[in-house]
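the two lines:
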Amino acid sequence: MIFKKFNIENKKARDLIPQAITVLALLSVIIYFATNAQINMGNRGISFGFGFLNQEASFDITFSMIEYDGSHSYGRAFLVGLLNTILVSVIGIFFATILGVIVGISRLSDNYLIAKVAEWYVEIFRNIPLILQIFFWYFAALRALPLPENGINFYDISFLTIKGWYVPKFIWTNFNIFLLSVIAAFIAIYFVNSYATKQREQFGKQIPTTIISFATLILLPLITFFFLGVSLTFEYPVLKQLSPTVFTYAGGVSIIPELIALALALSMYTATFIAENVRAGILGVGKGQKEAAASIGLNKNQILKLVVMPQALRIIIPPTTNQYLNLTKNSSLAAAIAYPDIVLVFAGTALMQTGRAIEIISITMLTYLTLSISISIFMNWYNKKMAIKEK
Amino acid sequence: MIKSIKTWILVGFASLLLVACGQGGGGAGSKKSKTLENTKKAGFVKCGVSQGLPGFSNADEAGNWSGIDVDVCRAVAAAVLGDADKVKYTPLSAKERFTALTSGEIDVLARNTTWTLSRDADIGLTFVGVNFYDGQGFMVRKNSGINSVNDFKNGISACTNTGTTTELNMRDFFNSKNISYEPIAFEKADEVVAAYDAGRCDTYTTDKSGLAAQRTKMSNPDEHKVLPETISKEPLGPVVRQGDAVWEDIVRWSLNTMIEAEEYGVNSSNASSLKDSENPAIKRLVGAEGELGAAFGLDNDWSLRIIEQVGNYGESYKKHIADTGILPNRGPNQLWTKGGILYVPPAR
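prediction for all of em together
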């Protein structure tokens, strides 16, 4: 009698059985791999554990956003690598988005030259493997830069050389107050904007929010300089001689060429895909929408900003999320040109020095997974925000 | 659905880690050598080498490998399979080398690898000997005016390979001298050379033999020089997996045979004619006395084949390191009887 319940005619059972089988199969594969790893590691006398994360790393890293030297732990080195990965991803996403939107719109331009240049850009950069582009920027383009003693000089405050781009260092006093004022400015802008929206929707009154926002963002932090003891001075890089023919710059901040090359390659490459998404999004908005907007007297910019873009964004965001994820994952190619990202520092040097392959690779994979899922969650939230709201 | 797949992957990882955490100590090595059996079955020795380091392991245009590290693999192949050419070479980066060995992708790692305590004891490896005594040094441009490590100043940039003892020694050295420096670590030696050659870094640091070998790859080798100081001990030697004592012995004594052969003046051309030598040590080396091969399941001519097909250590050094102009002077890599530190236990 009990078999009757699992009769193939029973829809619930029919749906459940394949799922249960899949889960079982997946579990047994995982258990097989885990036991296999366990037996083999046991046979070879390899221990397993995460205690190494507290051990002294004893290697240095070129470039770090937090205080780090070899006396810190492997855990700290992991953090340095993670922050460097995030840094290059954020820079890459920022420039890829700007460039992508410009190129995408340019491809639809009435101006033949602009449209063609944009088209050629997309076709060239999306069809060359990314690793070659990274090598190109690092080993070809940046290698053409001069040695420090002949660095390209920007008004004596910044120098571009083969060893990096030296820029002035910001030295703050009472930086916290300044930061708070910026946050306060953003909160103020948020309230002004929601007030303006209410006014517009209820009374049809237009409030110039753009100007007010900019003014708040500039004035509020500026006040702290005059009344709250915030000050900012600069430390400029100065040429320093190390030996008769060896020079470098002391003081200031050095933006290492590895970061520049990687950020350039990532954003130039990803921008082509974003540009195509933007073009698809704009073309996906019905012609009638533009004609209707034109007929009520909106000019070209207004049509793009008020009618086309809000609708196009819904088409653009989901595939662009993919590109952001790709860019973040592609940043792991950094190891090829010695940019100290998580793969080079942690899955590279730390793995080598400790020999803890399984632990370190698992941590690294979980880290990328977490990064990617965070970006996904954020972009899904943004997508929902931009979606059509039925009123 | 997407969400549930992600959950499953996470659950999978968690269980993998949990199960792996729960495993106990290592198994004991058996008297029989599994690696030896597998090697005989496969018909070739699986050997891990560098991605191209002249003198140690380097491939020519036709893909033929040569170098003193390669000769260790050839010696093992000659001993085990009777033919020094029966080796399958796997080029490995510094980062990949140990995983390749512990995972069984290769059975011998002869890749200018420094013998250290943590590598020997901690990660399932066993070093079987030293085939090159090296030390870390610095290369600079000749016109730089830097003539000694004492001329280094704060802010110097140094290029090296990632995942090496070099990276650690470099820090120890600059710290002890109280010099702040910019470390730039690449994964591949060729990239280090390219970066240094272009002027990205002021000095290039690695084992001195490596510096001498890589100098030949520079766009203009004469513009560079190696500083006289040596900042570390780098005993380079072949490595095997832990847990196969017989295989470990085979590799160890293949290397020792080459060194001992040089000590007794046995070389590739005179080896077979020395079968009726007066000296019992020589007779043992060429397989005319004793049953030494039986100790690890080989025939008695195993050492003769090594000497005939690969040559003794001196021949190997001369062919790959001295005659190629890398390090004409043998330095510490000379026999103990001639003022060096090459000293191997007797084969008896």
